[in-house]
Queue: 2 jobs
Job 1
Amino acid sequence: MDQQNALEEIAMIKKVIEESREFTFNIGKNIILWGLLMSAAIFASYRAIAAGNPGVSLWIWVIAIGTGWIISIVWSIRGRSINWNLGVKIISNVWTSCGIAMTILGFAGITSGAIQEWAIAPVIATIMGTAFAGTAFAHKLGWVMYLGVAWWLGALLMFLVKSYQTLPIFGIMMILFMVVPGIVFQIQWKKRLLSSEIK
Amino acid sequence: MTDFDYKQFDDTLQSRIRVAIMAVLVSIEEPDFNFLKDRVKTTDGNLSVHLRKLEDAGYISVKKKFSGRKPQTKYKITDKGKHALIEHVNALEKLIKK
């Protein structure tokens, strides 16, 4: 082996490690994805309702939630060959279950008339609190529990507002308590990768 | 003339495919055969041969189980394997710096 071969081999090892680690568990990217899609849908929906086009709101949600599920399913299929540990399995199941519950409540609840449109934001916020509390338990992260509590308090506040004005509150909560923590998770994940023995 | 000692290189890790397999295993916890085949981009037969060599050297452990009725083989890097890979990278770096 000469120096050129050695350089190529080190480059190859780094590339393989880097690409493989894209498959390591990274909750941040899912949280950011859903946080951005949901907050965009919330503000777009608020504008549509305020402009007197509530019918458009349903289509905004169909597109946002449909896109979120498609991307999440693709990511999940890419990682199916990996034997995740129990903590990861718990977190994945908590978020998948809560996601399905929110999708059912959002679409079936509203289209059937069982849930009034204004009430969907606090109902979903309550489930978000549960998802973050579950994540805090599985990830053993105390600060994530505070996010769960923040979602529950926000839900209580929105139940008091009782109008479509819950939507901007919900949108701000989605950015503060979903997108921002997602970015923190993402930064922590990157740091973990960089701190490994072989870089 | 150089004072670089080529014996520093591990014979088992003389193959690029075996090094690539080890690099995947050091990054991912217990992937299955298909995942490895996809990452290393080789044929079933070739991958099996290299995995057997790594297993014989004690660098990886193999776990066979059933997922429903489907047999599944999972691979894991051992501490000995991790150490060997780190030593291999160190030897490569020494060669570059010589």
Job 2
Amino acid sequence: MVDVKAQPGFKTITMLCLALLYTPILILVLFAFNAGDLAATWGGFSAKWFGVAFSNPEFHSAAKNTLAISAVATLVSTTFATMAAIGMTRVKAWPGLSAALMVVNLPLMVPEIITAVATLSFFAMIAGAFGLNFGIGNIMIAHIVFCIPFAFMPIRARLEDMDMTLENAAADLYATPWQAFRRITLPLLMPGVASGAALAFIVSFDDFTITQLVAGPGQTTLPLFIWNQIRRPITPEINAISTILLFVSVAFISLSFLIARTKKT
Amino acid sequence: MKKFLLTAASIATLALAAAPAFADGELHIYNWGDYTNPKLIEKFEKQFSVKVTLDSYDSNETMLSKVRAGNSGYDIVVPSDYTVAIMVKDGLLEQTEPNAMANFKNMEPKYIHSYWDDGRHFSVPWQVGLTAFSVDTAKYKGDINTYAILFKTPDELKGQVNMLDDMTSIMHAAERYLGQPRCSADKENLKKVSELLEAAKPNWKTFSYDTITKLTSHDVAVSQNWNGYSWRSRQVVGTVQFAFPKEGIEGFMDNVAVLKGAKNLDNAKAFQNFVMDPENAALISEFARYQNGIVGSKPFMDKDFANAPEINPPAGSPEPEFVPPCDPAVIEIYNKIWTKLKG
């Protein structure tokens, strides 16, 4: 076996790539602690911009919207994804199985802007034709749809890795399919579900393109809020808000990763 | 699992049920980001006992795309001049007749007639700005009120010029410097514009919208700029001055308009009348740092800003020009010149 780390130039290229990827983010975080008024000129160390951000009512309402949307999108999409994953791994192969798999994963392949425009016209149409407007529910529905494949992937991977003999043993011991599922499959599946849920949460939490087009009055989310602040000279407040967002994202990604890893062994 | 499903379902139902009902006593405003003074909204809410929601967009195009799709749910939008013209033409705005409103008497007469809403049947001014350029006078002592600063850059300023990454404003600035009409389709004229830009380009450092950072970090000493941004730059670097070029100056105006089919039409009309009150117009300016097109608002602003040179052009400087979009044929040639310039 050739050790990739021993290849000439490996270290340099790796360092270069890592630096390119993470230096801008590090600088963003660093300037969140800037005491000055400008996002690009250092004026000493201070955490005051976090205070400014936390006392900004627009930030509050955007954070509330974002959390509500992400929570609902995570719960519903993870539920659907779990059902879909079981329906695709724990049953006899059925005609259309691979087509169904494609459909579930479609949101990953369709360019996001296309989904965004389509969703915008869809909600505008049902509002026009039937007078239906779910308010913030519109965004939740849109998020549920594109979160499903993200929740689906780790759950399906976990199901495929799991030892079928346990489930077979349960069936041998006269457990009904529901009992077997409730007592054996689901507990074993939980790490996959949790990891899928964390991924779904973060995808919903960060989404910009679709949300921007679907959001109605009073439905500004954090990513939209940040984007629209950039029209004015960027103050470290934006850095502070971005840093908060970044930490939530990193926390959830790490959580998803840790759960998926520790429980497997 | 059942419990989990139930919880998920009930949360989803709750969320859907909690969607805002469009009742009386609401107003949904859709404005540019970071452009609305929270004090203005608070005051309107108190005075009319109305609950206001404020959402923001980053460009006229984002706003238009949502409004065009229909049923956006917003009552008030704040489109720029040329966008008002498009929205009027496409029937997207409610004809609210601001010209018959009580506070219309406060509007500066010169803004009643405009190419985008002549006679003010749809919209009222929100902010009026100027596009020219700023110069750090610590670096240059000569006369700054000429486009020669951008196009025949004096030696002291060479290599320290930032231009807006904006084709139209650069083309119009060049046309003004050459004494040509705006949007001229004349081949000779366009050739001269192209030559002027190509000759000036080696003296320019960057094309960027981030003018305040550029000026205040001393990255450049000259930047094409808007007067509101120039004011902000001067708060950091005291020697930054806004130029009023003698060859002509570009104006732009964002306008408060009501969307066709707005659910809260009466509140929206009340808001249009509300922003034409000098005291309220002053609140808008104090936040966004531009003029507001309303007579008598200056006494309500803080003194520093009311007397700022950025919003008080020196005697003899030209009236701002509001230029409608050029013909597609001209824009096509502009694009070619621009691509070559940026290449």
